[in-house]
Specification:
- The protein has 383 residues and is an alpha+beta fold.
- It folds into three domains: 69 residues, no CATH class; 225 residues, Jelly Rolls, CATH 2.60.120.620; 32 residues.
- Helices cover 37% and strands 19% of the residues.
- It is built from ten helices and 14 strands.
- The protein has a seven-stranded antiparallel sheet.
- α5 runs antiparallel to α6.
- The longest helix has 30 residues.
- It is globular.
- The protein binds 2-oxoglutaric acid and fe (ii) ion (FE2).
- The site of fe (ii) ion has 4 residues, from β6.
C-alpha cells in the first residue's frame, strides 16, 4: 500500500483452529447473584492465580479479589475463583472467551515442545540487555534524564540507544532457531500481524514475561513523560514480536497505524540497506485517511541497537529493504484505561493532527465573527 493510499489498521490475526481442537462453545456458567464491592479492601492481600489455567489473565483475578464482598475475602481460593469467574463471564461474550482460550492452548502447545536456544534472554537481565546510558536514565526516572538520552527529530518521535549488540544477536538467533523449529516440525504458527507473512510473535514462545517487564519497568516510565495524553502512564498490556525483511522474507510494510497506544521499535540488525520508516502525522480513527501536512513528513533510517518510540496512531510504513536482512523488535504497548476513556470522547485535539487543525479553524472563525460583530456595533453606535 502506498503512503498516499488509505491507511491500514495493523492488527493481530486470530488463532487458526487446529484440526483436533474442540471448538464447541464453552458451557455457560450459572449467573448467580454475584457482585463486587465498588471500593476495594486495600489492606487485603490477594491470592496468586498465576499457576491456574484460567481463560482470563491471572492479574485480573488478583486485582478483582480486593473487591469481593467481605464474607468472601477469607474463603478458599477455589471458592474465590468460582465467584470471580462467574462475574467476569458476564462481561465477555462467548466468542471472545473462546478466542482467549484457544490462544492460551496454542501457546501451551508451543511452550511444551519448543526448546529455547538462549535461556538467558527469557528473564529480564537489564545489565546484559541494555546500554548503560539507557539504564542510567531509567534508574534516575526523571524527565530530564530521559530527555538527555533521546533525540526528537520530529514532534512525537523519540529515538535513543537502547540494546547491546550481544543481546541483539542473541534475540535474532533465538528467532532464527524458532523459525527452524517451526519449519522442521511443520507447526502452524501465527504471524505477528495481518500485514506480515514473516516474523514471529515473541510472546507466543516464552518471552511474554520478559517483555511484560520491559514494558512495565523500562518503557512505561518514559511513556509517562512523552505520551501522557495518549495513555502513556497507564500502559497495561503488550504484543511483542519481530518483523523480518530481506531475501525470503517480507520486503516492505504498507502505510498503517498500530493497534497500540505506544510502539517501541528497535532494530536488531543485521546488515541491510533500505528499510526506512516513513511517518505521516498522528490521526484518530475518524481522520486516519486525511491528508498529510508538509511538517508531518518524516523519514527515519534504522540503526542497529537504536530504538524508536512513537504513538501507535502515528501513521507510518517501512520502505523496501533492498539488500541484506533486517530484523526489528516491536513492542505494541496498550492502555485499557485510555481505550475505555476514548469511548466517551468524539474529538482528540491534544493528539490528532486533524482534530487540532479543525479546532484551530473553529477558533479562528469564532474570533473573526466576534470581531465582525463588535465592529458592526461600533459603527452603529457612532452613527
Ligand atoms: O519495519 C519496521 O521497522 C516497522 C514495523 C511496524 O511498523 C510494525 O510492525 O507495526
Ligand atoms: Fe507499525
Amino acid at each position: 500500500m502506498s503512503q498516499n493510499g488509505s491507511v491500514e489498521h495493523r492488527t493481530q490475526p486470530q488463532v487458526p483452529p487446529s484440526a483436533k481442537e474442540d471448538t464447541a462453545p464453552m458451557p455457560s456458567l450459572p449467573t448467580l447473584m454475584h457482585s463486587l464491592r465498588v471500593s476495594p479492601k486495600i489492606d487485603h492481600k490477594p491470592d496468586s492465580y498465576e499457576d491456574l489455567p484460567l481463560e482470563f489473565s491471572h492479574l485480573l483475578f488478583s486485582s478483582l479479589e480486593q473487591h469481593l464482598p467481605l464474607h468472601m475475602l477469607n474463603t478458599s481460593r477455589e471458592a474465590k475463583i468460582q465467584y470471580l469467574r462467574n462475574i467476569v463471564h458476564r462481561y465477555l461474550p462467548d466468542s471472545e472467551r473462546i478466542r482467549v482460550q484457544r490462544h492460551k492452548e496454542y501457546r501451551q502447545r508451543i511452550l511444551m515442545n519448543y526448546p529455547p536456544l538462549h535461556k538467558e534472554i527469557y528473564a529480564m537481565h537489564a545489565e546484559n540487555f541494555f546500554v548503560s546510558s539507557f539504564l542510567q536514565a531509567i534508574r534516575d526516572n526523571k524527565e530530564d534524564s530521559f530527555r538527555s538520552i533521546v533525540a526528537e527529530p520530529t514532534k512525537g518521535i523519540y529515538t535513543f540507544e537502547m540494546l547491546q549488540p550481544h543481546f541483539c544477536e542473541m534475540l535474532a538467533s533465538e528467532v532464527e532457531h524458532f523459525e527452524r523449529w517451526v519449519h522442521e516440525t511443520k507447526f502452524r504458527i501465527m504471524r505477528p500481524n495481518t500485514m506480515n507473512q514473516y516474523g514471529a510473535v515473541l510472546d507466543d514462545f516464552g518471552l511474554e514475561t520478559m517483555l511484560g517487564k520491559l514494558m512495565n519497568d523500562f518503557i512505561r516510565p518514559m511513556a509517562r513523560v512523552f505520551f501522557a495524553d495518549i495513555g502513556g502512564s497507564t500502559l497495561d498490556s503488550h504484543h511483542g514480536f519481530v518483523v523480518e525483511y530481506g531475501i525470503n522474507r517480507d520486503v516492505e510494510l504498507g502505510f498503517h497505524v498500530d493497534d497500540s497506544e505506544v510502539t517501541l521499535n528497535v532494530c536488531l540488525g543485521k546488515h541491510f540497506s533500505g528499510g526506512e520508516l516513513f511517518f505521516r502525522g498522528v490521526r484518530c480513527d475518524e481522520h486516519v485517511n486525511t491528508e498529510t501536512l508538509q511538517e508531518e513528513i518524516f523519514d527515519y533510517c534504522h540503526v542497529p541497537g537504536r530504538a524508536v518510540l512513537h504513538c501507535g496512531r502515528h501513521r507510518h510504513g517501512a520502505r523496501a529493504t533492498t539488500s541484506g536482512n533486517r530484523i526489528n523488535l516491536i513492542l505494541w504497548c496498550r492502555s485499557s484505561a485510555f481505550r475505555e476513556l476514548k469511548k466517551y470522547q468524539t474529538t482528540f485535539p491534544s493528539w490528532c493532527g486533524e482534530c487540532k487543525r479543525k479546532k484551530k479553524e473553529r477558533e479562528r472563525t469564532s474570533i473573526a465573527a466576534t470581531k465582525q460583530e463588535l465592529l458592526k456595533r461600533e459603527v452603529r453606535s457612532s452613527s
